[in-house]
């Protein structure tokens, strides 16, 4: 008999001031802003606790989103759910990134080449996929993470192509909005997407 499927809900954190100002955050530990607080509280109406396990990146914006959306629910902080480490590019707009002397080399192969002073998308994939593969069969799990981290997991799990984007430095065509939910299932070693949930913004 095959094990019961794992059911995983991935949630991107609510908005910060840098999000609203078009600044790329990476590992910079910004809190959510007033709009983000409203988004996180609104998210609560779309969740159906209790979950067997609730995880969050240990960065403030993910933790605060989780605490507002799941008040009182036990929360496990796991650094493997952190956002992409953009190094010297953190705090910059997309246009400002392009003026950085290390930008062109990174953009030539962002999957394998680290961002200047940061890491590669491949390293991020190894981190977040390692977390996902440790989840127990049959559990109902929710995890609060970050835009690039969530999308990198999806790219890695499903072998999605890297597609360069005009005026956008990450080569993913899929997007995940603030507090948007992505539903996945894992049966044995096979992952599949379930119905996804919209954001609240």
From TrEMBL:
Domain of life here?
Bacteria
Q: Which GO terms describe its molecular function?
A: phosphatase activity
Q: Which InterPro entries match?
A: His_Pase_superF_clade-1 (IPR013078), His_PPase_superfam (IPR029033), PGM_Phosphatase (IPR050275)
Residue positions annotated to bind substrate are: 12-19, 61
Which cellular component, as a GO term, is one annotated location? cytoplasm
- Looking at the Swiss-Prot or TrEMBL record, what is one Pfam family this protein matches? His_Phos_1
Task: Identify the SUPFAM superfamilies for this entry.
Answer: Phosphoglycerate mutase-like
Q: What residues sit in the active site?
A: 13, 83
The residue ranges crossing the membrane are none
Question: What PANTHER family does this protein's entry cite?
Answer: BROAD-SPECIFICITY PHOSPHATASE YOR283W-RELATED, HISTIDINE PHOSPHATASE FAMILY PROTEIN-RELATED
For this entry, the protein name equals: Probable phosphoglycerate mutase
Organism, as annotated: Deinococcus hopiensis KR-140
Lineage, please?
Bacteria, Thermotogati, Deinococcota, Deinococci, Deinococcales
């Amino acid at each position: 008999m095959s094990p019961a499927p794992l059911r995983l809900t991935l949630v991107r954190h609510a908005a910060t001031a840098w999000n609203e100002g078009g600044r790329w955050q990476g590992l910079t530990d910004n809190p959510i802003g007033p709009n983000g607080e409203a988004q996180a509280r609104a998210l609560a109406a779309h969740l159906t606790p209790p979950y067997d396990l609730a995880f969050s990146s240990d960065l403030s914006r993910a933790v605060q989103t989780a605490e507002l959306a799941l008040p009182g629910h036990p929360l496990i902080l796991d650094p493997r759910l952190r956002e992409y480490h953009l190094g010297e590019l953190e705090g910059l707009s997309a246009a400002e990134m392009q003026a950085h002397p290390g930008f062109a080399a990174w953009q030539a192969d962002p999957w394998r080449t680290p961002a200047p002073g940061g890491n590669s998308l491949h390293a991020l994939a190894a981190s977040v996929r390692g977390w996902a593969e440790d989840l127990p069969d049959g559990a109902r799990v929710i995890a609060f993470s970050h835009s690039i981290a969530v999308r990198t997991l999806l790219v890695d799990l499903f072998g999605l192509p890297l597609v360069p984007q005009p005026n956008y430095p990450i080569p993913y065509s899929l997007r995940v909005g603030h507090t948007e939910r992505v539903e996945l299932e894992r049966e044995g070693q096979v992952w599949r997407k379930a119905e996804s949930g919209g954001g609240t913004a």
